[in-house]
Amino acid sequence: MKPKVAIGSLGGTIGMISESKSRGIAPKLDAKDFVGMLNGIDNVVQLYGESLFNLPSGHLKFEILLQSIQWAVKQVENGASGVILTQGTDTLEESAFFCELFWDKPEPLILMGAMRGHEEIGAEGMRNLYCSILCAISPNSRDRGVMIVMNDKIHMARWARKSHSLSVDAFCSGGKNYGFIAEGKVEYFYPAIKRMVLPKPSTCEKKIFLWEQTLSGDARVLEWIEDYQDGLVISGFGAGHVDIETNRLIGSIVQKIPVVICTGTTDGPTVYNTYGYEGAEIGLIKSGVIMGGYLSAKKARILLWAIVNNGLDIEIFKDYSKMLVC
Questions:
Q1: CA-CA-CA-CA torsion sign (127, 125, 99, 89)
Q2: What is the pLDDT of residue 42?
Q3: Residue 194's CB: how many other CB atoms inside 10 A?
Q4: Per the domain annotation, does 275 fall within a domain?
Q5: How far apart are CA 260 and CA 206, in angstroms?
Q6: Are strands 179-182 and 185-188 parallel, antiparallel or unpaired?
Q7: Same domain for 119 and 84?
Q8: For position 157, what pLDDT does the model report?
Q9: Which residues of the chain have pLDDT under 50?
Q10: Count of Cβ atoms closer than 10 Å to residue 24 Cβ
């Protein structure tokens, strides 16, 4: 019996075309269209396509992703060997990590998209979808959680980053690529890794604010933060540091809402016991701040959101961060 793969489309460049020469491209095609474009693959796999949403990825919300996860769970329960969600690449790394936190099935959940519109010369969307299908039906993909497949590369949701605004090779994993599709074969570089799955929250009401430290920045925006937000993530200087003004505000903020500080760089972790000046990690940790470890600020925000909206102990954030390293 041929394996079954369900494809749910959320929108994005992969399904964008231009309706007239005077206008740019916009979402139009969906999963059913994609299935019809994959000539010959039905000899080895049974495909089912459904349009869930048709939005640019910046318009997606956590509520939409929770609905998409529920749809994916239903597809697995109906016999799918794997599920693919297609969406825009601008928020692909965030969507994948969000899904990773709540995906509790052994079947793989693949997120993918395209950097070029469907009508553009060299459009790679169907190639990316083809590779995603191969990944979804591979027995070696089981128990690996949520992955991103782009440009023949397989990325773990926790490490994937969009590193280029236009190139088809837009995603990287900071030297931690998970696998590669070569000659129609799915090849992984590592065995399945340890994961932590959280309960799906019943509410999306609580909000987490993401603030970036910049040279000579104005931290006064943080003076109101605890009255309107339920958590704060700071993309700090270097290995997780803040300026003097921000440091002084954090002292009172952390008494009311959880505060996480991440590295503002594209790779590497925060430190815990190196720097002792005002605004550095030693004093921040003493005040109650949580260091983000290897998580990017975007993903730390999502993890903190999941914890807060579930009413879970903030120590889970530390446990997750520790899980990322041996």
A1: positive
A2: 83
A3: 7
A4: yes
A5: 16
A6: antiparallel
A7: yes
A8: 98
A9: none
A10: 9
DSSP 175: T
Q: In whole angstroms, what is the distance from residue 299 CA to residue 319 CA?
A: 15
DSSP assigned state of 68 = H
Q: Are strands 4-9 and 46-51 parallel, antiparallel or unpaired?
A: parallel
Provide the pLDDT for residue 39.
85
28 plus 176 within the same structural domain: yes
What is the rounded distance in angstroms from the CA atom of residue 258 to the CA atom of residue 95?
A: 22
Rounded Cα gap, residues 135 and 109, in angstroms: 9
Strands laid side by side in the 185-188 sheet? 46-51, 4-9, 82-86, 109-112, 146-150, 153-156, 179-182, 185-188
d(CA 305, CA 320): 14
User: How many residues are there in the chain?
Assistant: 326
Domain membership flag for residue 199 = no
In a domain, 305, yes or no: yes
Q: Phi and psi dihedrals of 79, rounded to 5?
A: 110, 5
DSSP state of 95: H
**Closest of 295, 104, 60 to residue 304, by C-alpha:** 295
Q: Residues 237, 246: contact at Cβ < 8 Å?
A: no
Are residues 149 and 173 in contact, defined by beta-carbon separation less than 8 angstroms? no
The answer to whether the beta carbons of residues 254 and 288 sit under 8 Å apart is: yes
Residue with tokens 């430190």: 271
Parent domain of 147: 4-188
Structure tokens at 204: 């999306």
Co-location of 174 and 220 in the same domain? no
DSSP conformation class of 165: S
For residue 305, the Cα-to-chain-centroid distance in whole angstroms is 13
User: Can you list the positions of beta strands (E) in 77-178?
Assistant: 82-86, 109-112, 146-150, 153-156, 161-162, 171-172
CATH of the domain at 11: 3.40.50.1170
Specify the amino acid at residue 284.
L
Contact 190, 220 (CB under 8 A): no
